């Protein structure tokens, strides 16, 4: 399965190594947030640990915001073609969902 690259000019991410001190902490944070998102009834579409990103279903966004809204940090938007990737950071893990690009009224 291919991936959608919405951020072309981003700096390359250094690959994770299980030998680094940061790896266990990041894995733990990623897994814990994944469990809590599922327990909140939010539908997860895709988990990408190497990008530290959890993709959720747009239909579950309201539930996600009710449960994690007070913990949101670093809200970002990136459009490519007909889609916008909306990303927020929760406890150091990026959570993203896709919406349609809205054209401005002329």
Beta strands, count: 5
End-to-end separation: 38 Å
Helix and strand content put the structural class at: alpha+beta
> Which segments are poorly predicted (pLDDT under 50) over 5 or more consecutive residues?
none
How do the helices and strands follow one another from N- to C-terminus?
A: HEEHEEE
Rg (CA only): 15 Å
Shape: globular
Number of helices: 2
Integer tally of domains? 1
Q: How helical, in percent, are the residues?
A: 10-25%
Q: Could you tell me the mean pLDDT?
A: 86
Largest sheet: 5 strands, mixed
Estimate what percentage of residues fall within beta strands. Answer: 25-35%
Strands of the largest sheet, in order across it?
Answer: 1-2-5-4-3
Structure described in brief:
The chain is an alpha+beta fold. Helices cover 25% and strands 32% of the residues. The protein has helices spanning 22-39, 61-68; strands at residues 44-48, 53-56, 72-80, 83-90, 93-100.
Topology:
Elements: H1 22-39, E1 44-48, E2 53-56, H2 61-68, E3 72-80, E4 83-90, E5 93-100
Parallel strand pairs: 2-5
Antiparallel strand pairs: 1-2, 3-4, 4-5
Give a description of the structure.
This protein has one domain (22-100). Helix content is 25%, strand content 32%. The protein has two helices and five strands; from the N terminus they run H-E-E-H-E-E-E. It has helices spanning 22-39, 61-68, and strands at 44-48, 53-56, 72-80, 83-90, 93-100. It has a five-stranded mixed sheet. The protein is globular.
Please describe the structure with a list of short key phrases separated by commas or semicolons.
alpha+beta; 5 strands; five-stranded mixed beta sheet; 106 residues
């Amino acid at each position: 399965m291919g991936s959608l690259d919405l951020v072309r000019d981003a700096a390359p991410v250094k690959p994770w190594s299980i030998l680094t001190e940061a790896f266990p902490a990041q894995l733990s944070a990623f897994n814990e947030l994944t469990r809590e998102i599922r327990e909140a009834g939010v539908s997860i579409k895709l988990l990408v640990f190497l990008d530290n990103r959890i993709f959720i279903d747009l239909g579950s966004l309201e539930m996600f915001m009710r449960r994690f809204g007070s913990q949101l940090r670093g809200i970002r938007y990136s459009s490519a073609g007909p889609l916008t990737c909306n990303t927020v950071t929760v406890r150091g893990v990026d959570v993203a969902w896709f919406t349609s690009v809205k054209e401005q009224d002329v």
